Amino acid sequence: MNSMNAGLSGRTRVLTVAVLLLFVACLARISGNTKRVAAQTPQRSVQGRVVNQNDVPIRSAIVYLSDQHTMTVESYITQEDGAYRFEQLSPNDDYKLWAKEDGKTSKPKILSSFDDRTVFRVIIRIDTGK
User: What is the number of domains present in the chain?
Assistant: First the structure.
C-alpha cells in the first residue's frame, strides 16, 4: 500500500505543478492584454497661456486643473511666457480649469469628456486691472 500511496502522491504533485503553471500562464496573458488596452486608450492634454485683459502673458500665475470625477486638483505655475501644460488626462473624465494671480481669479473653463479632442489649447484670461 505504501508504494500505491507514493505513486498517488507523485501524480498529485505533477498535477499541482501543471495547474500552477497554467494559472501563471493565464495571469501573464491577462496582464499583457491589460497593458495593450491601456496603451490603446488615448490620453488627453491641455496646454495654453495665462494672459491679462490686454493679452500680455502672466508669469507665475497658478493654473488649477480639477478632475470632476475624483475631485483631485493639480496645479502648475506658469512660465515666463505665461505657458502651462497638463498631460495624461483621462478621456472619460470632465475637468475644470482656472487660474489665479495676485488674488485675482479667471473664469473657469470646462473640458468635457464628450469632446473628442486629444489636445486642448486654452487661453485663460485674468482681469488684473493693470
Answer: 2
The H or E element spanning position 91 is none
Distance of CA 28 to the CA centre of its chain: 24
Cβ contacts of 119 within 8 Å, gap of 6 or more: 44, 45, 46, 47
Residue 36: pLDDT band with limits 50, 70, 90: low
* pTM of the predicted model over 0.90: no
Same structural domain, 51 and 73? yes
Q: Which domain holds residue 78?
A: 44-126
Output b/e per residue, 78-105; b: 16+ Cβ within 10 A.
Answer: beeebebebeebeeeeebebbbbbeeee
Judged by DSSP in three states, 9 sits in helix
Indicate if 56 and 117 belong to the same structural domain. yes
